[in-house]
Amino acid sequence: MPATQDSSVGNATATRRYRFYLNLNDAKGSLVSRTRLTDADFRLAQLAFQFERLRRDASFTYCADLHATQIVPHFADALQPSCVGFDVSDRTGSDESSITFDNDYFQHRVLSIAATLQREGKVAIGASLAYFLEAHADDEERQSSTPEIKIGTPRALISIGERARADWGASEPWDSPSADQMPMLLSRRVIDEIVAEAAATPEREIGGLLIGRLWREPTGDLYGVITAAVSGASTMTGDAVSVTFTPETLRKGRTFLASRSADHPGEQILGQYHSHPHGLCQDCPLIPPPECLDKIFFASLQDHHLMSSTFDQPFMVGLVVGVEPRLAQGLGHAPIRMFGWQRGVLKPRGFDVVDR
Asked: What is the Cβ-side half-sphere exposure of residue 336, based on CA atoms within 13 angstroms?
């Protein structure tokens, strides 16, 4: 389905739709790829907008109904189709806020397109490519052979409990948590478990699921707590450079949730973890510098695909676990790094460690 989102035209009742394209040029400025974007390409942005509303408004029902949002391009020039980004806002008019996304939002989509072009021999490996977003108004009237039918209301995707963050005890910030992001608390016991699992299998990647719940403080602030990990052992395959999550992995997670639902109501899968058993070079100092750490703790194109296809909710996170002994010296804590969604882009993020 094309990403043809409605936007208001002045005060009129007419609607305007847009067709979006992602274009790649080579170093000479010649067009090498033109991809028409679909609704799926804007899903992460729409979810981010919905989640920001949930963070602000406890009465808002967070759900999968993305038809309540609209996408409006930001044109660089009123006479040209090139865009510097786009806005996501509420289609119904019940909320006047919006979130602006720049073209960095599409960076992983671009990498995926470039990888395909390289496999097909259309672009040389290592070639420099530039990309830009383009939008065209589509004023054709919508036509439908059947009337629109809505049955019921969209089901909420998450359960939010009420509990003060202070109830979890003292917390230790790791990797400089940002005030702009929803706080995420991580049990030290979970850290110990997954670090030990990764260290026990240094020759290949391992992985599993992160279990926890979202909570709202009496002040209204939303935060998450990860209290358990479900190892994917026996349900997934891995080698030195990759690991594959399977339907059996997710079924194991759901079985785990069901087994403790009486004592831990409202828990759900909050993300995934997997190891990067890559070693540092022999010349790397005892305390590895940031550029060396980034070669171990990074989100690959495959990691982004995993997160966007299976763990795409804005509150979900991914933990990368290292096995090289020197990594803890460089990080200043156990060899893990958390990645989370920031306006539809997977980036490193800070978190807080609790002893519960």
From this structure: 28
CATH for the 160-354 domain, from 3.90.110.10, 3.40.140.10, 3.40.1190.10, 3.60.15.10? 3.40.140.10
User: Hey, is 342 helix, strand or coil?
Assistant: strand
Rounded Cα distance between 176 and 174, Å, is 6
Per the CB < 8 A criterion, the answer to whether 260 and 204 are in contact is no
Rg (C-alpha) for the chain, rounded Å, is: 22
Cα distance between residue 222 and residue 280, in whole Å = 38
Name the token pair of 262.
């009486």
Cα distances (Å, whole numbers) of residue 220 to 164, 165, 183, 186, 350: 10, 11, 13, 20, 21
Q: How far apart are CA 171 and CA 37, in angstroms?
A: 43
pLDDT of residue 158: 82
Q: What angle is formed at CA 165 by the lines to CA 184 and CA 218, rounded to 5 degrees? A: 120
- How far apart CA 272 and CA 307 sit, in angstroms, is 8
Collapsing DSSP to helix, strand or coil, 79 comes out as coil
In three-state secondary structure terms, 58 is: coil
Choose between 68 and 65: higher pLDDT: 68
User: For residue range 287-333, what is the model confidence (pLDDT) as tens digits?
Assistant: 999 999 999 999 988 899 999 999 999 999 999 999 998 999 999 99
Please state the φ and ψ torsions of residue 265, each to the nearest 5 degrees.
-65, 145
Every domain of the chain with CATH number 3.40.140.10 lies at: 160-354
Return d(Cα 315, Cα 47) in angstroms, integer.
Answer: 10
Check if the beta carbon of residue 206 is closer than 8 Å to that of residue 274. Answer: yes
